[in-house]
Amino acid sequence: MSRILNSIVAVCPDMGIGNKGQLPWHSKRLNNELRYFQRMTMTPSIEGRQNVVIMGRSTWFSIPAQNRPLKNRINIVLSRQLKEPPEGAHHLAPDFSSALRLLDTADLAEQVDQVWIIGGSSVFKEVMEAQDQRRLFVTQVLQQFDCDTFLPPINPSIFRLLPGFPGVPEGIQEENGILYKYEVYESIQT
Asked: Where is the DHFR domain (predicted)?
């Protein structure tokens, strides 16, 4: 089945997305940005369906235990090491391709609306290199923090920056002294 693969991520100017298993700016909570993430990944476009969040094992375990699974979303964890879904996860897949095939099974095909990839770095890389139609919802945090995990570069010959997108706030946002802006990129169909 043809579907749009949505990735959602917040990045520092150097494309850093994490540090020691946490968001680089974890000490300065960006509650509005977190609410944006929740709203985008949680809100289906088809009534009676649910969105899916796909994430790697490390991303799953970086979510505080009390917040797992991400509520009102079907949580799929990718891992070649785990033999069964971690406690709270709805499904386990050994790789990204297997997760997408899982969405087409009788069990999920009638439940699933939008697909959201939420990390980590290697999963984002795989999606960014996929042949499917893709969108990248990127929060550009306009301040540098220490990072040890990075988003691959966004190739302008593959993705174009959209001038706006429904439901995505425009302009510079400010929270706890940190400036950021939302951007949406879409894959260029050839």
From this structure: 4-187
Amino acid at 28: K
Residues annotated as catalytic (active site), given as ranges: 23, 33
pTM for the model: 0.95
Torsion angle of the four alpha carbons 62, 135, 140, 160, in this order, in degrees rounded to the nearest 10: 150
Sequence-ordered strand ranges (E) for 4-82:
5-11, 16-18, 50-56, 73-78
Query: Structural domain tally of the chain?
Result: 1
Model confidence pLDDT, tens digit, residues 18-30: 999 999 998 888 9
Domain that holds residue 10: 5-187
List the structure tokens of 26. Answer: 């974890």
CATH code, domain carrying 167:
3.40.430.10
